[in-house]
Every structure is written in structure tokens, then in C-alpha cells.
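The authors assume throughout that readers already know how a fold can be written as C-alpha cells. A single example would do more here than another paragraph of explanation. An entry of this sort, consisting of the sequence and the corresponding C-alpha cells, reads as follows:
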Amino acid sequence: MAMSILMTVLGSVAVVAGLIGCIVPVLPGPIVSYLAIVLISLAGGWDLYALSTLIILAVLAIGTTVMDSVLPAMSSRRAGAGRAGVWGSVLGMLIGTIFFPPFGMIIGAFLGALAFEVIFNPENRKPMKAAMGVFKGTVLATLLKLLAAGIIGFYFVRGSVRTFSAL
């Protein structure tokens, strides 16, 4: 019983940290959230979830984390942005999230991309188009990570309920 409670508390922390990690670029959010599934599986026995569910959730966590790197780069290249625009978007999103939640994330991503394109890539004749491309990719990647972490969090809650209803 004590082990189940400990794993549930640690798993809850992992889900919350994973959701935060979807916005803060330091933590791989969906992967941290998936840790909660592993913890609750340890507590409730490995029969809480079908093996296919564990594999699908792992692929979802890893896939969205990879897409977080790929989507902004792909959309920025298509729009003609440089590396500075991508970094400006991430920095702007972080600053916007901290100082102007909840819409600061979106506005910060755009303004950061635009400012960094203008400052660090002055040969770009269409910085607004480049900033929009970076912005779209960054926001889409963030939304996909939040969705994945949310789905994983749902399965964690479901597993937690099953664990404690079995006791």
C-alpha cells in the first residue's frame, strides 16, 4: 500500500513536470510524463495496461519529442528563416510564458522569431514571413507535446484509479 501511494505521488509529479516540460524547452515533457506510466505500472503490477498500450504511449512520447525539434526547423526552412529565428521563437515563448501567461507563449514565440530574424539575419528580405513560419512550427510542436502529455496523464490517472480500486 505504501509503495502504491509513493509511486502515485511520484507519478503525479512526473505528469505535472511533463506538462510544464512541454512549454519549457529544458525538459522533454511527454517523456517525463511517460515516466508516470512506468511508476504506476510498478505500483499496480505490470498488468494495469496491455503491452500494446505501453508501446503506443512510449512511441507517442518519443515521437512528439522528436517532432518538437523537426517541426520548427521544417516550417522555418519553408518560410526562409534562419537558425536565429528558431532560437528567438523558443526564447520568446519562454519569456512570454513566464511574464504574460497564458497568451504570452504564443505572442512571445512570434515576437522572438521576428526580433531575432531582424537582428541576426538582416539579409532576409521577408523577416515577417520567416517569423510566421517559425511561429507556426513552434506552436504546433508545443500543442502536439501538450496533447501527448495530456493523453499520457489520462492513462496515468486511469491506472492510478485501477491500482487503488484493486486494493
